[in-house]
Structure formats: structure tokens, C-alpha cells
Amino acid sequence: MGRISRNHVLLTGSVLAALSYRAFLSAPMHLRKSARTLAAAVKKSKTLPAYDAGGLDFRKKIPRAKAYDVCIVGAGLSGAVIAERYASVLDQTSLVMDVRTHIGGNCYDFTEPRSGILMNLYGAHLFHTGLERVYKYVTKWQDKAPWKRYDHEVVGWLDGKLLPIPVNINTINGLFDKSITTSDEMDDWLQSVQIPCKQGNCQNAEEMAKSRVGNELFDKVFNTYTKKQWDKYPKELDALVTARIPVRNNFDPRYFSDKYQILPSKGYTTWFAHVLGHKNIDVVLGVDYFKIRKQLEGRCGKTIFTGPIDRYFSDSKLGKLEYRSIIFEADIIKNDGFFQTHSVVNYPGPEVDFTRIVEYKHYHNQKSDYTITVKEFSTDTGDPYYPVPNPENHKLYEKYQELAKREEKEKQVYFVGRLASYKYFNMDAAIDNALNMFNQIEGSPKQPDIEGDENNKKGAASTVSDSI
Hints:
By secondary structure, the chain is of the alpha/beta class. The chain has a domain at 167-243. 35% of the residues lie in helices and 18% in strands. The strands form 4 sheets. Strands 8-7-13-14-15-12-16 form a 7-stranded mixed sheet, with helices on both faces. Strand 7 (154-158) and strand 8 (161-165) form a beta hairpin. Helix 4 crosses helix 15 and helix 7 (183-193) packs across helix 8 (205-230). The radius of gyration is 23 Å and the shape is globular.
């Protein structure tokens, strides 16, 4: 795996921060300049090149007077998949526009110039799925944008030790000085600490977590981490927040258990460039849909909106839905090995205010004289990433849903994706949702390239976050 800095194994997060700062001060001027450039780009969600479409032809302004079968707001997963389906399956034209200056949405990645390391701008994205149709879809361009197997592992800094996340036998043995060796023993231990929900119905994320792992493990792994990530304690959130995190009764160290666990070997941006590379698709970057919406009147047969639904209906005065965002702090370090043992190290405890550190060099086992680390701090300001699942937001979203139904009926505007649907979709579920919406709008046209002879919906959408 390469050389690993022993500092990460031995030191807590606060000391790591100081160590990183001292390393920055002692670094050569050219490296300090590169680090500042990268840190500013990542923190402000700005691409290092002014625009980046992965080599794809794009525009900065919408073509004058040109009409389209479909206008799509957002060049992320939902928008790209729907545009490609209209182009490839129905031979219809699409305008795909994004306020950001790159394609790929939150999946966007790029090669940092100094280190040559491929990294994400918006946090690590690990693709995994049990859906055959979705797997067939993402690998359609395998000859030009190949995907390779990658089994993701995460560890957490727990009681001064690096232990597997999700919880497995080694986590329990390391935290509680146990010597569990079999799944039966693990099941017995879990059963001895679990606190069943009343009448089997967990009312919130705290009850759900304690019904699975008990009080002590809940405090060590779930409680503070949830507060840091959501700015709400588990008892304030839906049970699904902790229900989606697996607890293993074996030694499996993988974060996911899906049949397909893969990464695009040339990066997500290259893959998106091929998805959007059809002659029927025009891509326009750096344009705010709400500023040019009037220019498009009468020029769009249908409109697909993938942004925040409350932003679309801001004139309704219903109020804002809650979203969580992330502040990223990036650093380039002179190190031909690795800074930490795994690509992702979580920090569930209160010792530091960030949630995790990602080291991108681990993905694809990249070689460089440098390494890049990114700390992640959850916040309620900035680009919306995660809908906040609690009863208040669900009730407000239902009101927006009624407006969306009317907009669909009267204006053929359709709302698709995580932000428009106000659902915590993983990547495979976002693709599946986009394919379903295309079928719903267009009456399920034949798509032999992704359907095949098997059950189109074989498998299940993932329940563990891929942007972990």
C-alpha cells in the first residue's frame, strides 16, 4: 500500500491539524502556493480551470432562438442520465444547463496539477449498487470510460484506536476488550446490549441506533457524529438516518456490501463527458436558470428541474427546506507514501469538529511524491448537499409536492433528483430514479442497451451513503 505516516496512527485530530499547519509553513514556496490554490478552490467549490467539461464541447451562453425537446436544469447524475436517454432512445434534443462551471454535479473530479492526483471537489464518491439496470447503464461506455472494482473500507478514530466502520467484530473487540470470533458470538453480544423499540416501532434515529447497538456503542459511534453532521441529535431525526448504516456480525471490513462496487478509472468527469457527448445534447455551464428562465419561454418542450425544489417555488413564500452543506479544507503534503491508513478516516467523537479526513491518493492506488488530504466540516450554509430528514421538513415538502404536481400538469415541468425530490438518494438510486422518471414521462420505451433479458429491477437500491 505504500508508506503510511505514523503521525496519523498515533495522534488525535487536534494535533494532526497543528502538525499539518507546521508542515505547510516549512514547505517550499511553490508547494505552499499550490496548497493555497487548491485549498481556496475546494473551500469555494470552484474548479481549478475556470470551466471543466472533461473535454466535452460546451457553451457559456444559451444558443439564441434555438428550441429543444427537453430543457434540463442541472448537469449532475439526474440531468445527465435523462438527457442521454432522450438523445439515445428517442433521438430528441436536450439543453443541459448548470450554474456551476463544470459538469458532473457533486460527483465532479479533477486532477490536481502539482501532485497529479485525481480527486473529488465535493467529497469522496464511491459507487455501489445491487441494481442490474443501473450497473448496465454506468458501464455502457466501458471502452472509453472504464470502471474498475473497488471495495471501500473506512475506519474511525474511536477511543484512541483506528477501528472498522461500519461496526464489525473487530470494532467490538477493540472497543470493549472482547475476544469474539464467530457470528453467533457477535449476535449474542449485540442481543445483550440492544434496547428494543416500543412495539417494534422506532420513533427516531436514537431509538433505532440503540435497538441495534445499545447505549455505549451508540455514544461512541453515532451520537456525536450525528450531531456534527446534521447539527441535530439523533433523537431529532428520522429513524432511517441510523437504520441505513449497517452493523456487521462478522469480520467484513468493507463499507458497502453491494454486488457491484466500482470506481471510474479515468474519473467521474470523464464518464459524464461520454454520457453527455451525444450530438443531440447542448451543454451550457455557468448560467443561472432563474436569471434566464424568461429567455427559454416557448423554447422547451419539457423542463426537467434537478435543483432544490424550494428554490424553484421561492415565490410561494412557503419557507425554506433544511439542507446540510460541507466545508472542505484541503492540503497538499510532500509525501510519496500515505498520510493515513485508509482513504477515509471518520472522527465520531467530540475531540475535533470535523467529521472525517479523506486522502484521495488511496483511490486507484495513485503514485505521487505528494498526497492530498481533505477535512470535512458539516454546516447549514453553502451548497445544499443533504436534505434534513425530520417530520417538520417532510410536512413542508408535502406542500411543495402539491405545487410540483400542478407545475407538471400545467407546464410540463418535472422534478427529479435528491434536491428536487428532497430525498437522500445514493448515486445508484439517483440514476434509478432518473431512469424511472424518463419511463414515467415517455411511457417506458424499449431500452435494450440496459434492460436485457433479466428482470429490469433485479437487486435493490443501496441504503448506505456513497458520498460517505
